[in-house]
Write a structure and sequence with these properties.
Blueprint: E1 2-3, E2 5-8, E3 11-18, H1 36-65, H2 67-81, H3 83-95, H4 100-116, H5 121-141, E4 156-160, H6 165-170, E5 176-181, H7 189-196, E6 201-203, E7 217-221, E8 226-229, H8 233-254, E9 270-275, H9 278-286, E10 292-296, H10 298-302, H11 310-323, E11 328-332, H12 360-365, H13 368-387, E12 391-396, H14 402-422, E13 431-435, H15 438-442, H16 444-447, E14 453-456, H17 458-466, H18 484-499, E15 503-506, H19 514-523, E16 527-530, H20 535-543, H21 547-557, H22 563-577, H23 581-584
Parallel strand pairs: 3-4, 4-5, 5-6, 9-10, 9-16, 10-11, 11-12, 12-13, 13-14, 14-15, 15-16
Antiparallel strand pairs: 1-8, 2-6, 3-7, 7-8
Helix pairs in contact: 1-2, 1-5, 2-5, 3-4, 4-5, 9-11, 11-13, 13-14, 19-21
Amino acid sequence: MRRGISVSPGVAVGTAFCINEIFVNPATQHVGQADTSAELAKYEAACEQAKHELLTLESAINAQAGRDAAAIFAAQAAILRDAAFTNNVRTWIVEEQISAQAALQKLLELYRNVFSQVEDAYLKERLDDIRDVILRINSHLLERPEAAPEGLEGPLIVVADELLPSQVVSLGTMEVQGIVTQAGSQTSHAAIIARSRGIPAVSGVRDILRHVQTGDAIVVDGKEGRVLVKPDAETRAAYLKLEREFFDFKDQLVENRAQPATTGDGTPLELLANINSATDAEAAKAMGATGVGLFRTEYLYLMHPVVPAEEEQYEEYCNVIRSSPNHRVTIRTLDLGGDKTVPFVGRGHREANPFMGWRSIRLCFENPDFFTVQLRAILRSAAYARSLGGQVRLMFPMITALEEIHRVRRLVSGVKQKLTKDGKRFADVPIGLMVEVPAAAVSINSMLPQVDFVSIGSNDLVQYLMAADRDNPKVAHLCQPLAPAVLQVLTEVVRKCNAGGRTVTVCGEMAGQPRAFALLLGMGVRSFSMSPAFIPYIKECGRHLSIAEATKMLQHALTLHTTRKVAHYVTEQLKRLAPDFARLDF
């Protein structure tokens, strides 16, 4: 048994699928001598396709974002023309009789070993370019990237070092029942995606890839943060029973989706969903959400080779609006940077601390051309939402100073004028501020008159308050939403928002955690946005709490001085108030 961080509740029993960046299928790693010519031909064709794609991208990005942004593709094309780079793969295919994919994986490992000995930071960064070229070639080798590995029987438990959003999407229609990663935390992007899909997941399981191989029987206990490799028959049977009970309980909760969300004393609650796509919006509707509190638009960019055109963005936003509960969607503008990068912007700008550097709204301000395109598409989609009886709200991330709110308002005003001149239909939208930076939390009073609503992005706010990278397993334990400092800051922000007459929504993962939910309720929060899968749990939890009980719970929690004491106290109170708390807890 290996222990990690519980990031998505539930139990999954299945077969391990250990993935790396190349997704080599062990069954096809070796080929016969007669097949080496075919593998060589496939490899040459994939290289030519990759080369053509890189040159096309270089031209397109140069036109959209300038020569500096396009330079990355020119550099990668140069790597692809390097004889030493391509000849290694040819040699291994012929001499070792392995597939082109397996040879590419071997090439990636070779370069990783070489660059691990390099001290120069600039040279280390070149590994990113080499990896991207290898992955691009591999993408053209894959005929069916969504297919499960041959010989593996589902359900599958994906095991990886770190699972990027693009990798999750590439898993496609596989019967993925659970996820285990060596890196990551409760608020990593892999964790967020797992929760949005209701997939049990455990992160931060050190060296798990050394102890499990593709095809091994494996169990994921997403509630307790446990991973069992090759369990015996008795243990497997016990966890299969727990898995069935989890699904039965989840199905039972989902049956209540048509019931209104209220506290035990009848206070109405607004339970919204955090989504990345129209598919997530459909899931939100199925789980009983009343709207979308956070649409992360950057995922459209992350899955796109170039800046998405205005019409493409407009169509995607309309798809999301059409699929969303009550056609109510709060759209967050691009939150790129940090660990979410795209090759056409920000890639060449290396930073020692990217999470606190050139990212999010700061990056958008310096790239007004594509930022303006997004604003145009959002305002146009707002008119579509209105035609359906819904509403679009526009929210800006990582606002730090009042001057930035003034600047985004000027940008929105300018976009409206240009849309009017172009004869394009659009609608006015409420403008909101995301409180993620401590500076915004401290100066919230000065910002409230300039915005229509406030959303608290607890994931980033917690990591900035605690000065701890939430994706770094060595310090992830500090990123605790129940930390006394976090509770004190949130209490003040919510109090000021309510006093200032501005609706406040908590849209970080904190909103979907029963302990944190109870304390937020005591602070005066009535609007919560979370992964769709968590909505039935929080709705059920709310039914067992009154506002008076939640307020009393918060007041006592604020007198405690350690995270552990807060967690213990709230746990004991919820056990007393909610008979099913043990099943709701995660």
